[in-house]
Amino acid sequence: MTEPITPLAELWRLDGQTAVVTGAGRGIGAAIVSRLTEAGAAVVAADIDPPLVSGGADSLRTATIDLRRPEACDTLAHLALDTFGSLDVWVNNAGIYPSSPLVDLTDDEWDRVLDVNLSAAFRGARAAARVMRRLGGGVIVNIASNAGMAAGPGTAHYVSSKHGVVGLTKSLAVDLASDGIRAVGVAPGVTKTEGVEAAAASLRQAGWGDLDDYVGRTTPLGRMAQPDEIARVVVFAASDLASYVTGTTIVVDGGQLISFT
Ligand SMILES: NC(=O)c1ccc[n+]([C@@H]2O[C@H](COP(=O)([O-])OP(=O)(O)OC[C@H]3O[C@@H](n4cnc5c(N)ncnc54)[C@H](O)[C@@H]3O)[C@@H](O)[C@H]2O)c1
């Protein structure tokens, strides 16, 4: 006897759920907030700068917070609970990607990148898991990078942090499955965001050349991603469309990683 299957139109919905998104002020994070809201979730959108994201007034709460502060993620988890009464989806998206020749990379810069990109993701996942396990489960989505699987020039700190995020996702899946919590990584390739535009000059200095040319040459799909193309995969990962997906990182890079060109 086969189980009745849930209609596809319902599987992607997040009605009645609450999500926290970090780094939500712009770029990929803002696109994720927009799509999660469309899927029916209430969202706490957090950023070090005041987030400019928009959404239904009742379903969106913004928070200005520096994730390098040790208590920041616990504060956000409780803000979600206090405001919307649940916490079902946590998206570790905030990230920084400065570049530097390896021999000039300072200890401080190494620590800063690892702290924002990896340690804050760990603190976010831990804060989320402490709440979600009490509520019966949830999903943690970590925004990694295809630099979590291969290395480009001048970005040892970033590459190391994102390899760490891919590993963290595996550990979360193993440690939290019995609490009903899935963990999924989403690894963008080069995506047209404010952060990338700002980094283009220093990436050029690091040996990437012109970023549009570089992406055109090295990516089978021949262009950068739009932030929304990453956000759509986050909705998939967070929803019951991905109910049997955990511990893996989904690469969303236009084929760059698998191409020799
Ligand atoms: N854009 C790309 O090409 C690309 C590619 C691969 C992976 N990623 C990853 O996607 C994520 C988002 O990238 P993006 O391009 O949208 O970046 P972005 O710079 O455009 O936006 C990042 C946001 O994170 C916030 N942030 C940074 N440090 C913070 C802190 N300490 N506390 C709170 N918020 C903080 C920033 O204020 C900003 O609003 C990052 O994790 C990045 O590594 C991006």
Structural write-up:
Helix 2 packs across helix 8, helix 3 packs parallel to helix 4 and helix 4 runs parallel beside helix 5. This protein has a seven-stranded parallel β-sheet with strand order 3-2-1-4-5-6-7, with helices on both faces. The mean pLDDT is 95. The protein has one domain: 3-Layer(aba) Sandwich (Rossmann fold). 44% of the residues lie in helices and 15% in strands. It has 261 residues and is α/β, with parallel strands linked by helices. It starts with 7 loop residues before the first helix and ends in a 9-residue tail after the last strand. The chain has eight helices and seven strands; from the N terminus they run H-E-H-E-E-H-E-H-E-H-E-H-H-H-E. The structure holds nicotinamide-adenine-dinucleotide (NAD). The site of nicotinamide-adenine-dinucleotide has 27 residues, from helix 2 and helix 6.
What is the total number of structural domains? Answer: 1
What is the CATH domain class?
Answer: Alpha Beta
CATH superfamily: NAD(P)-binding Rossmann-like Domain
Measured by DSSP, the beta-strand proportion falls in 5-15%
Specify Rg, calculated over alpha carbons: 18 Å
User: Which molecules are bound besides the chains?
Assistant: nicotinamide-adenine-dinucleotide
Neighbour order of strands in the largest sheet: 3-2-1-4-5-6-7
Mean pLDDT: 95
User: Which term fits the overall shape?
Assistant: globular
How many β-strands, per DSSP? 7
CATH topology term: Rossmann fold
CATH architecture: 3-Layer(aba) Sandwich
Largest β-sheet summary: 7 strands, parallel
Query: Count of DSSP helices?
Result: 8
User: What is the helix/strand order?
Assistant: HEHEEHEHEHEHHHE
Structural class: alpha/beta
Helix content: 40-55%
Straight-line distance between termini: 50 Å
Uncertain spans, ≥5 residues at pLDDT below 50?
Answer: none
